[in-house]
Amino acid sequence: MSNSVFPNDFLWGGALAANQTEGAFLEDGKGLSTVDLLPAGEKRRAYMEGHIPTLELQNDLFYPSHEAIDFYHRFREDITLFAEMGFKALRVSIAWTRIFPTGEEDEPNEQGLAFYDSLFDCLLEHKIEPVVTLAHFDVPVALVEKYGSWRNRKLVTLFEKYAKTVLTRYRDKVKYWMTFNEINMLLHLPFLGAGLIFEKGDQELQIKYQAAHHQLVASALAVKACHEIAPEAKIGCMLAAGMFYPYTSNPDDVKAALDRDRESYFFIDVQARGYYPSYARRFFEENDIQIDMQPEDQEILKANTVDYIGFSYYSSRTTSTDPEVLAKSTAGNVFHSVSNPYLKKSEWGWTIDPKGFRITANQLYDRYQLPLFVVENGLGAIDVPNKEDEIEDGYRIEYLKQHIEQMAEAIKDGVDLIGYTSWGPIDLVSASTGEMKKRYGYIYVDRDNQGNGSLERKKKKSFHWYQKVISTNGLT
Asked: Around Cβ 172, how many Cβ atoms within 10 Å?
């Protein structure tokens, strides 16, 4: 252990989200969340992009979040399996609508609060640190209907109330918090990321960046609340990371890659540095974007910067200014990326680039000089049991092995890493596709894309591999 490059207190574990695992979507007083409106199938992408015909549930559509993998009732069984692997941390999220079903109640829903008490207590009993995200693609539908979601300043106040409620309730149980999951996703999947719905004639870019400003102020106020309520805790931000490569050494391609990186780093620049970067101001001027700021906003952002940077990494991206090259984009990727001829791809068209993981970690640390926390990394793949009913997922082991090796190299480079919570330690509903067959877990869940199956849990080959990785602190 002493020869490992990973610190002795490194937080090995896994990450999941309430809306992709819990199910029980209206149980014990929970309100309807935006993710509860996302159907499986062909319509899902249009919904996530903000083109939603109705906020009513429809009988002819299947909504995978409604039952998901029933973590709400089975979390003790699942946490026992995580503990058997040796987890030091589990990243989870709190469903806003379990605490305030419509977002505007005077008092929180005690049944929702009690559920997370039980969840965190169970984790701590197994010596697993809860790492808690306040908003993982969850907005109360009632706030979308009444205010238009994050386009309205009212949500800043309501989110601050929610944040203070849970920070106060769990201040003795949770040491690591994050504000918004993959906050930059707002620009790409605005309904998923911020509950935004667009109508014909809307100035979508203006609406997105105004909503982004509201989320950034709300994030800063949550940081302020955490520092006051739970001063021993750490609270961070989180982005969907993965650097852009220029397709060629043409300076135009290099500049295009810089611009695409800044598109995401903008959010973290504000959360980590406390002010709007100059390149964003130019972008706003050139695109006629007028951000409505309150007089106190600049001071709120400046005084309440984050303690660490959380990030997800699945793949790098590549961009070009050549129209013919741009036409050949990778399939299945939320971030538009052209095909990189030097890299392999997953079954869903995501580039597999372990060295890009190291490069991205170095970029982030060079930029912010704050501790980093890898809170998502994994491979979505189709797992098929063999004749002995075993899941031999050597492809997943190889993917994770290569990425952990590059993470070790980043530490040798001097990057300060808090921990590594791989995405989907148990099979869950895919956020991008709503599928179950796109599996990430070390634990197989018997459920298919149509919601059929026993929900039985079963260890995969990768379960025992990751157990060994953790027990040797990354030496094996």
From this structure: 11
**Helix residue ranges, H only, 95-250:** 96-99, 110-125, 141-147, 154-169, 190-194, 204-229
Are 316 and 245 spatial neighbours (Cβ–Cβ below 8 Å)?
Answer: yes
Q: Which two tokens stand for residue 393?
A: 């997922």
Half-sphere exposure of 412 (CA within 13 A, CB side): 10
Q: How far lies 159's CA from each of 33, 139, 221, in Å?
A: 14, 10, 9
**CA–CA dist 465, 442 (Å, integer):** 9
Return d(Cα 129, Cα 191) in angstroms, integer. 31
**Pick from 216, 220, 237: which is nearest to 368 by CA?**
237
CA distance 316 to 340: 9
- Residue at token pair 């971030």: 335
Task: Write the DSSP string, 317-355.
Answer: EEE-S-HHHHTSBPTT-SS--B--TTSEE-TTS-EE-HH
Instruction: Give the number of other CB atoms < 10 A from CB of residue 281.
Output: 12
DSSP conformation letters of 405-434: HHHHHHHHTT--EEEEEEE-SB----TTT-
**Closest C-alpha to 226, from 218, 216, 234:** 234
Which one, of 55, 59, 17, 51, lies nearest residue 36 by Cα? Answer: 55
pLDDT of residue 451: 95
> Which among 352, 351, 348, 370 is positioned nearest to 361, based on CA atoms?
370
Distance between CA atoms of 221 and 159, rounded to whole angstroms? Answer: 9
Could you tell me which residues come within 8 angstroms of residue 317 by beta carbon, excluding any fewer than 6 positions away?
242, 243, 244, 245, 260, 333, 335, 337, 351
Give residue 2's pLDDT: 60
- Residue 388 φ/ψ, nearest 5 degrees: -90, 10
Spatial distance between the Cα atoms of 458 and 441, rounded to a whole number of angstroms: 10
E strand or H helix at 359, and its extent? Answer: helix 354-368
Helix axes 204-229, 154-169, angle to 10 degrees: 30
Residue 254 in tokens: 């290099």
Q: Which residues are catalytic?
A: 376
The average pLDDT across 96-120 equals 98
**pLDDT tens digit sequence for 26-62:** 999 999 999 999 999 999 999 999 999 899 999 999 9
> What is the 3-state composition of the chain as percent helix, strand, coil, each rounded to the nearest 5?
45, 15, 40
- Reported as a single tens digit per residue, the pLDDT across 449-466 is 999 999 999 999 999 999
How far apart CA 273 and CA 264 sit, in angstroms, is 14
Residue type, 176: Y
Q: For the chain, which domains are there?
A: 11-471 (3.20.20.80)
The per-residue pLDDT for 135 is 98
Contact yes or no for 315/354 (Cβ under 8 A): no
